Amino acid sequence: MRAFIFSLVLSSACAHTAAGPHVNVAAVRHEILDVIDKDGGSARREIVSMGHVTADSAVVYTQVTPSAPRREETWVKQPDGWKLRESKDLASTGTATSSAGTVTR
Asked: Could you give the domains of the chain?
């Protein structure tokens, strides 16, 4: 009986419940890539990787070509879809070299 109670206590102590809503990063990436593709005014850029993603914001790393510097873009979700809030170049070490300020489209 002690073993049963001990195992019950141990299993309930180790049980993990997720905090907050889960975000489908692949879906967010696809939605942002659709917005990038529809933007005819800038050079075609590819999403290289995703940073921190929440339901209403995402950090996206993009490049125009493999030899071009990476850019860190901060996107926010508006009622009418994803909008680019900020974009900045990154050095080859991954640190910011300059800030382009607030960019809106």
From this structure: 20-102 (3.10.450)
Please provide the distance, in angstroms rounded to a whole number, between the alpha carbons at the two ends of the chain: 66
Distance CA 82, CA 36 (A): 10
pLDDT for position 3? 73
CA distance 38 to 36: 5
pLDDT at residue 71 greater than cutoff 50: yes
The full DSSP string for 28-88 is: HHHHHHHHHHH-TTS---EEEEEEEE-SSEEEEEEESSTTSPPEEEEEEEETTEEEEEEEE
**pLDDT exceeds 80 at position 104:** no
Q: Is there a contact between 98 and 89 (Cβ–Cβ < 8 Å)?
A: yes
